[in-house]
Amino acid sequence: MGKYKAEARVRRLDFEPGRRILAISDIHGNLEYFRGALELAAFSAEDELIIDGDFLEKGDRCLDTLEYIMELSKAGNVHALRGNCDGWYTVFEQGREGNAHLLRYLRWKGKGFLWELFRNLGVDVMAIAGLDPYIPLLHAYDEEFDFLRSLPDAIDSENFTFVHAGRYPNKPLEEHSQDELNRIDRFMDRGDSFEKWTVVGHYPVVLYGEDKVCANPIIERKRKIISIDGGCVLKDDGQLNALIIPHKDSEDFSFVAYDHFPERRVLKDQAGGSRSYYIRWGDSRVQVLERGEEFSRCRHVRTGYEMDILTKYLFTSEDITGCNDCTDYVLPLKAGDVVRVVEETSRGYFVKHKGVSGWYYGELE
Ligand SMILES: [Mn+2]
Q1: What's the CA-to-centroid distance between 83 and ligand 1, angstroms?
Q2: What is the pTM of this model?
Q3: Is position 52 within any domain?
Q4: pLDDT digits (tens, 9 = 90+) for 19-75
Q5: What's the Cα-to-Cα distance from 116 to each of 13, 55, 130, 141, 155, rounded to whole Å?
Q6: Domain that holds residue 34
Q7: Residue 242 sits in the same domain as residue 319
Q8: Among positive and negative, which fits the CA dihedral 27, 75, 217, 362?
Q9: What separation in Å is there between the alpha carbon of 202 and the centre of ligand 1?
Q10: Could you tell me if 237 and 269 lie in one domain?
Q11: Rounded CA gap, 164 and 222, in Å?
């Protein structure tokens, strides 16, 4: 027998005509961004809201985020589905080996949903010898686990299918496994197209970019795919996107994006740079040529491309030096443009302009 693959659970939803449909994915325990995005979108009881998976892990407020989603879900117009980071209800059935693996994970991560629960229960995961005796304590949160257990892996409607990561064409949703719907990587690069719109998160959209970093949703009209993960929590310059579908029969999509970076105004025109590169997750190995306090001169190992990287973005693990996502892209800007400041440095500002990240070397108002 191969590894047991849980079958996907699909929930059908018939949206009422005229009601606005919002979709948000990959909140990753960032309650501030979630509330911010809902406010920007002017979310109300008149809207439908799809939470497209991965509202847990990586961030600092997983339990609060879950409880807020549970509260919102009571009204009947908020519909969450499960991402690959939300399946913690299996913690009661995983046995000794699973528990040992989980303890190593908790110690390594030092944050996340179960880490928060154990902290609240007074269990210091760094100090205990094994997790087995402490698993039953988690039943204090049965309501939360029941909610996670109840979530579908896909929400299907007349014109839109919502899944966390992706799906295969010519294969009914129900015949996918949970893992397929929740974990397909680089879904947009598979080249598939669909009859009805497929809305996904899971893979930060910035990673589809070549030389530029843009966190706005990608809408592929010919293939009917919308990818919305703005890199909230995962990226230093990430944002939480809320896709806005005006009503169930509309393709007039728009979006709002929330982040917490301060807004400033550009004082001088800046011509865009001619050459740039984007070093990103999965291909971020660099060689440090000259380490400085603020910036370090680095060479991207695979391409040989050289750029100055904020020293605080460098990390070393197992003798390999890598870096957080970064770019040397110089943004084309006009005086009066409003930018959002991610990093203020002695050389200039790393900013976002309309979802695109890059450098601005002039003065800000
Ligand atoms: Mn995911």
Answers
A1: 5
A2: 0.94
A3: yes
A4: 999 999 999 999 999 999 999 999 999 999 999 999 999 999 999 999 999 999 999
A5: 33, 14, 17, 11, 29
A6: 10-86+151-258
A7: no
A8: negative
A9: 4
A10: no
A11: 20
